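Annex B. Sample input.
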Amino acid sequence: MLAVIAGTNRPGSKTLTVARLVQKILVDNGDEVAFIDLAALPPDLMAGTSYADKPDGFEVFQDVVLAARGILTVVPEYNGSFPGILKYFIDMLRFPESLHEKPAGFVGISSGRWGAIRAVEQLEMVFQYRHAHLYGRRVFIPAVGSAIDETGNLVDPDLGQRLHNMVCGFSVFCERLGVEPENLG
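Annex B, continued. Sample output.
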């Protein structure tokens, strides 16, 4: 199973739209997919006590990450970086086993012209610190507000093809690494 993370908790975000598109590409490719929407995190996770004692509602998110054979994250750019909720989500995951030797891929989106390249590169450093295997191909979607049509698809067919190739390539990357979740950590 592959996990797709929508990297923000902002209501009605384009991140969620792009993450659903990534999920659809994987499902159409024959992959089993679990979807993580950070907007669904339990509100009591924000309590400072959560560092030591996770709320019961967080366990389902933790279980998905542990069971995934790879994680594909859609990363929006907020103020030149990635959203704080995404970092906090990673901070709440068990260390080291949650991301250790787990394949990880990234799709960046932004309202600006660079498609969240900084945000993705900064997040890659966090995943590398946690000893994830980074997939070398990334897709950056600039001007995301006009890049997606009303059906949730990319307007530019070349960008759509690049996203498709990257997402399907990530699935192959995970297969080739052959890292099984039960053997991690």
